[in-house]
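Input/output pair, single chain:
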Amino acid sequence: IHSYPWSSTLEFTYRINAKVIKFENNANGDALLVVHWQLTHDKEISNLKTMHSEFNASAINTSYSARVAALNDTLAQFAKVIVDHID
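Output:
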């Protein structure tokens, strides 16, 4: 993973453009990630399709660590969806 701007000497096979709409916990600690994103292959730049995804995760309680764990779960769900689109 590299942040933009990256060095021009780096070569990527896939690129993900993501706009995070929401990344938050509710009063119960449950997490929500809403993201618009595009996955592009270096050979298929013209095939850009924007996808909209929402991910939810329940917190085991309202503690700070449980809230962070729920947020992490939404990121893991997002990562799995990205991998599924690559395969």
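The chain has a mean pLDDT of 87. The helical segments are 64-86.
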